[in-house]
Amino acid sequence: MLIKEIMERVGMTQTGRALAYIKDALDEMGIVAETDIRTSRQDIIKGKRFYNLPSECLKLLDVRCKDHNNADSKWRSIPRSIYEPEIVDEATPVLSTSQTSFHFAGPKNASETATFIITNGDPDGSFTKALEWSITGDSWLTFTPSSGTTTTESETITITAVRSGLSLGMTTGSVDITSNGGDKNLPATINTQPTVVVSKSSLDFGEISSGTQQDTFEITNAWQVGTLNYTVSSSNPWCTIDVASGDATVEADIITVTVNRDHATIVDLAVYTAVITVEQDPNDGTSVEKIDVRMVAV
What we know:
By secondary structure, the protein is mainly beta. It has three domains: about 1-35; about 95-190, Immunoglobulins (Immunoglobulin-like, Sandwich); about 195-295, Immunoglobulins (Immunoglobulin-like). Helix content is about 10%, strand content about 45%. The chain has helices at about 5-10, 15-30; strands spanning about 65, 75, 95, 100-105, 110-120, 130-135, 140-145, 145-150, 155-160, 170-180, 185-190, 195-200, 200-210, 210-220, 230-235, 240, 245-250, 250-260, 270-280, 290-295. Strand 1 and strand 2 (about 75) form a beta hairpin. The longest helix is centred in the first third of the chain and has 18 residues, at about 15-30. It starts with a helix and ends with a strand.
């Protein structure tokens, strides 16, 4: 209400007198309603963002902080905005992965798996917002799971790479992750060269008093891609194989091994050992497998 309006309502024409009356009224109000100012102190804890005001608090007059590490140890006021504050969601999900790339060249089979972990790298851990993510990739890659939501926990992803149908050589691709906390494209490669695999790592013929004994093992092309050309050899003449070389695509080649107790090199009653080597053609690759052979002459 304006001063002029007040004067009109009470029928007063002298402005000075009206102002004096208003001043006296305000002074009287100040005497009747005594101001009660109290101070509340709380220790500030790192990471804690909100603090409760005393229950009797009607109006916040001032907020001050004191840094105990300062030499002057003074209380300093924190400015307060006179405008309505803008509410901002400070929780920012951030996509974080344990791996930056993938290379499939280890196990000798038609498919191979690898794992990695997705976490929410939100820097404000107290107000974490859910990270929503999904994964896609090349046709020879599959993912379990392929999508999900992560807050403070971690999610383990299993990648399966299948070599069947791929061209010979090194195939490249990518693991593509999209999320509300950023996107990532992680490179992936897979080796699809023909590779030797044998069905047994050792052959034990036990005790032999005379004559010969036989056993078998299989040679396969690990990834069933292309043609595997190989050679087979034995380190000792009393241990022979029926096939010195061959090739395999998707089938398994059966190799027969014969040990001869009566061979001229077996002269003592003892344990005899040999090694059978299956080696890929050097023009095609470098994979090699070895089989230990044992015989006891009695």
